[in-house]
Amino acid sequence: MEKSLGAPVVVRNTPGAGGTLGPGRIAQSKPDGYTFGLVGLSALVVAPLTMDLPFKPWESFDFLACTSELRIGVPVGPSLPNVRTLADFVAEGRRRSLTIASTNPGSAVSFFDLARLTGMQITYVQISSITEAATQVAGGHVDSYTGTSEMIGLVKGGNLRMIASASVDRWPEFPEVPTLIEQGYETATRQPIIWAAPAEPAGADPRPAGGRAALRGAGPGGVAAAAIRQHRAAAAQPRRCHGAAAGGATGSGGGAGRLRDDTQARLI
How far apart (Å, rounded) are the C-alpha atoms in residues 32 and 225? Predict the structure, then answer.
């Protein structure tokens, strides 16, 4: 990114509260064109239904690009020593309720679907950080969780076993592990990750300033989050019911802009 923007990038990691602390920090920052960060779609769609937020999901941000999609896996640990396959997992869930942890319910959609499709029982446990969820499963205190990239080392180290990908594709690190869909269950969890900047105040120059202009072209493939911006515009209309945007629309792959030599981008 520094190469694309032509300026230093200072990264401030702000995890916690189900992925809403980082977006809150973005929303409360000065809209100077040089501060932006990553927002998961669940922070915009699910979190408002489960907690009070320090931002307005569709009004507090200028959505710049859809960068990637969070991968979700189904891992198990010491609490399920005899579970080696998804079929074993489902059978155990029919015998007793399995504890499933995640930082927010939106990431656990496939677990809820699996329970609905199979009749297995689950008890949902919300945990403040995904690393804590991984620790709880690896320690045998929770049966499974919505595993993301932190799970890779734990699986390769033998602390966890991955029995399914809950994403639409197999994980490249574990190509032998099939998806839930491939194993006969029509469900997948999709979690787009979006570049966002603090929203400009009403009446501001609509042209993207500074880092905004550069970042619109700096994302992978120049992917503009057109669907997110459309959702934001629709959300401002009264007496409407809105669904969640599933991702960004593909834009041109043109070269990225550059910042002035004396500027520094801040990534939250």
Answer: 20
